[in-house]
Write a structure and sequence with these properties.
The longest helix is centred in the first third of the chain and has 37 residues, at 3-39. The chain contains eight helices and no strands. Helix content is 81%, strand content 0%. The protein has a single domain (3-213), classed as MetI-like fold. The radius of gyration is 21 Å and the shape is flat. By secondary structure, it is mainly α.
């Protein structure tokens, strides 16, 4: 297979990987914040339910969660399986929201209680205090941890091959098997590295822009 054809096919798969990556972040980042609030809730039942959810998401392989989300509806409820891509997004969002929730919780709980008290004296409501004072500082503190998870997510998109989603790893695997060659694997590795490099550079730029909170 010519290099131009190989690159074109891998690029198609890469686009699917980018879609998985983007949609996962788009939904898991805000969901993770709400999960973190539930984890810190004074309601014992809610707190324990969220704790169990996080424990399951972090304690089982993502590839297994993909299988459950995709095949579970049929085997458990005897209803049609969801679309492969939709199942992938649901599994990824639920998994990464749990990780982001713990990152958020660590950042929020690390804030000095004096800042809450000072904001209360100045007449800020709880919502205003969190949005205007606490959250911007939390974002700055958790960016390195979030960056690590984001980079891991790029590599985890390859797990979608388990339910036959045609992302880049799946495409490279098919071509490598058909040609009995390692070149598609090497080309895929280059694609992943470039994607990682771009994302890491963007996250580093965001950290620099947030440096005024030091």
């Amino acid at each position: 297979m010519e290099w131009t054809v190989l690159v074109a096919k891998l690029a198609e798969g890469m686009w699917v990987s980018v879609e998985i990556f983007t949609l996962t972040l788009l939904f898991s980042l805000p969901l993770g914040l709400f999960v973190a609030f539930g984890r810190m809730s004074k309601n014992l039942l809610l707190r324990n339910v969220i704790r169990f959810y996080i424990s399951v998401m972090r304690g089982t392989p993502l590839i297994l969660q993909l299988m459950v989300v995709y095949f579970g509806p049929y085997y458990i409820f005897r209803i049609p399986t969801p679309h492969r891509f939709l199942a992938t997004i649901i599994a990824f969002v639920l998994n990464y929201a749990a990780y982001f929730a713990e990152i958020y919780r660590g950042g929020i709980e690390s804030m000095d209680v004096g800042q809450y008290e000072a904001a209360k004296v100045l007449g800020y409501s709880k919502a205003q205090t969190f949005i205007k004072i606490i959250f911007p500082q939390v974002v700055k503190r958790i960016l390195p941890a979030v960056t690590n998870e984001v980079i891991t997510l790029i590599k985890d998109t390859s797990l979608a091959f388990a339910i036959s989603v045609s992302e880049m790893f799946t495409v490279a695997k098919a071509i490598a098997s058909a040609q009995s060659s390692t070149i598609p694997w090497i080309a895929a590795g280059i694609f992943y590295y470039v994607f990682n490099f771009i994302v890491a550079t963007v996250m580093e730029w965001i950290e620099t822009r947030m440096s005024y909170f030091r």
